[in-house]
Write a structure and sequence with these properties.
Blueprint lengths: L7 H44 L16 H6 L1 H4 L3 E14 L2 E8 L2 E8 H4 L1 H8 L6 E10 L5 E12 L15 H6 L1 H7 L1 H23 L3 E2 L5 E2 L11 E4 L4 E5 L4 H9 L4 E9 L11 E10 L3 H20 L3 E4 L2 E4 L5 E4 H9 L9 H10 L10 H12 L8 E4 L11 E2 L2 E5 L1 E6 L2 E8 L4 H16 L10 H9 L4 E7 H9 L19 E2 L4 E2 L34 H5 L20
Parallel strand pairs: 3-5, 6-10, 14-15
Antiparallel strand pairs: 1-2, 1-4, 2-3, 4-5, 7-9, 8-9, 10-11, 11-20, 12-13, 15-18, 16-17, 18-19, 19-20, 21-22
Helix pairs in contact: 7-8, 8-10, 8-16, 9-15, 11-13, 12-13, 14-15
Length: about 575
Amino acid sequence: MRGRKKSTKEANAEYLQKQGGTEVAEQKKQQEQDLNQLLKVRREKLADLQANGKDPFKIVKYDVTHHSQEIKDHFDELESQTVTIAGRMMSKRVMGKASFCHVQDLEGSIQSYVARDSLGEEAYKDFKKLDVGDVIGIRGEVFRTKTGEISIHAAEVTLLSKSLQILPEKFHGLTNTDLRYRQRYVDLIMNPEVKDTFIKRSKILSAIRTYLAGEGFMEVETPMLVSNAGGAAARPFETHFNALDEDLKLRISLELYLKRLIVGGLEKVYEIGRVFRNEGLDTRHNPEFTLMELYQAYTDYHGMMDLTENLYRYVAQAVLGTTKISYNGIEMDLGKPFERITMLDAVKKYSGVDFNEIHTLEEARAAADEHHVQYEERHKKGDILNLFFEEFVEDHLIQPTFVMDHPVEISPLTKKKPENPDYVERFEFFMNGWEMANAYSELNDPIDQRERFKAQEELLAQGDEEANTTDEDFMHALELGMPPTGGIGFGIDRMCMLLTDSQAIRDVLLFPTMKSLEGVNKKNDVNNTASEAPEKNVKTESEKIDFSKVKVEPLFEEFVDFDTFSKSDFRAVKVKECVAVPMSIS
């Protein structure tokens, strides 16, 4: 049977489509050829410099007297004075006997006027051969141009490092989010706001340490490689220590070692360090993150609330100059007293369910069924209360709020409330609907602690991979006697997100965890131009998948279109089974 004959219009459209595809391919090929030629030219320039005894990589130091913003801020004092700056050349305009360039350093950017008569003919020729991206040093006098721009009249230009790669085009910058995270060094060069975020992060950590030092706390360091990863409900990473032929884990919290130090008589201790949890990635979770845990003898969780409130207020004022912060357009006031509410009252307030009137597991399950809260067979009454909290309450906790008195089932290391042993002296600190800190009146009864470890081991036997096991050395320390102690864990990365108005945890981690790309050198995710021959007799053809109906997750619709997404870090996976993995409880 013969098919329908195509109309002239259809045939022309098909021809134009093929031609368009061919032109795009040819343009891409031409762009690659042009790029390769530019890279070749840069290497030839370096070879020429080295042949003439001007190898920039032999320079070992350069004396810098000022930074760009410092010169601008103190122009009245520095006008006509000789200064020396160094940084990356971000632009260059050659106009015969005189040129302009902009040099970017830690504090910003400043213009330099480079004239042949000031530099000398030979040096000016060398300057004209410089490329955008080269690292240079400039010595000269500070002045203001006729257009009013504060500049440096160069008397000497020194090439300190030759850039053999090409920076992204300035107008578009580096906008590919995936590439920004993988090549943070380029991101820092091209996006000043990114550099500002990480400068603020450093100041936040410095302010925390300053405040705690003033309160008499001692900073300590504890092991990252442990035989028993306890102190939190999370799945650890596992490794093997060859020298001892012993399996070890990366720590998931800082708690148990710091408590040992309290037993040892160090009354106020804290640690800021990396912890590792083998769980999901999202805008607020990274498998390795920075945690601060702090322990103080002879106080309780009320003391920890006071410390948290004062600490956040101090850090915001020190870093931002205000206690009012804005995140995603929402203002949060750290200057006002933080709200304090029990978990029971919070659930009653936002869900209408009063767990004071629920006395049995069956009643709790009935309430969950009625309100469409999903639970598992192993969950007890306290677990279901916590599920109600997560479902109905968390999103409402925008302003600074302490949620107190959690059920004992979800708090294995916490002291019970004397008047109600079903609940513990614990609080979680919330802002923007996020858990920012988690604090306890620490459990110091070794008999009670051992019973709770046993309960955790039962959960582990039932398949809960995040349950703890008994740490016998910690139990020995506890049996020696630990004073009444207040303890708290702070999520430093989330704190940095809020104080820098960053939308994702990866925006406050210099080098976030990224999946290795295909078609690149997996050691460092840099494109590998040398193609490697596939192994013989290895089947490389994968299953064909129809992407015509693919949609971007609604959360990201405003940030990325599918064409961009498809060129970034993603994989197509046939899902055979889907099991929810809960995020850890700090």
